[in-house]
Design a protein that fits this description.
By secondary structure, the chain is mostly helical. The protein has one domain (3-152). The protein contains six helices and no strands. It starts with a helix and ends with a helix. It is elongated and about 60 Å long.
């Protein structure tokens, strides 16, 4: 396998998985949370966090490293820098907003959620919507660049 092919796989797989996880959360849990009792919401989000907290860092780091490597190997062949910037913006939002709120969430008691949980979680949801769009756009860009690159090399 060539270095370019390896970089493409390392970029596309974790970017696609991250986009799918973010989009799945946005389409499901994000729509349901306002209908749950505060206790049920905190309990659900803590379960989700424990499930994904170990999985997301390797996916996001893999997506970023694979995408950066792919971009370097492509050099001037296409707008590859666009998907690096999209992923980088998503990563910054996640690090600055979502992760600190997730840490807060894990300290909440499901039996007595804080009164301001809807305001705090509302901010998480707004940023999550933005980062979902960014990662989905990065995945679409990567897929399009791969299709164009594959077609032009035939």
């Amino acid at each position: 396998m060539s270095p370019l092919t390896a970089a493409q796989v390392i970029a596309l797989v974790p970017t696609g998985l991250t986009a799918g996880i973010f989009l799945g959360h946005r389409a499901g849990v994000s729509r349901a949370w306002s209908r749950l009792s505060p206790s049920a919401f905190v309990q659900l989000q803590q379960i989700i966090h424990r499930t994904f907290a170990w999985m997301m860092p390797p996916l996001v780091i893999g997506a970023m490293l694979g995408t950066l490597t792919w971009t370097v190997l492509l050099r001037s062949r296409g707008p590859a820098v666009a998907f690096v910037l999209l992923l980088l913006a998503s990563l910054c939002l996640t690090r600055i907003i979502n992760i600190p709120i997730n840490r807060q969430l894990m300290m909440w008691s499901a039996d007595a959620p804080p009164a301001e949980f809807t305001q705090v979680w509302g901010r998480w949801e707004r940023v999550h919507s933005t980062r979902t769009m960014l990662v989905v756009a990065a995945f679409v860009c990567e897929t399009l660049v791969l299709a164009v690159f594959t077609q032009s090399s035939q």
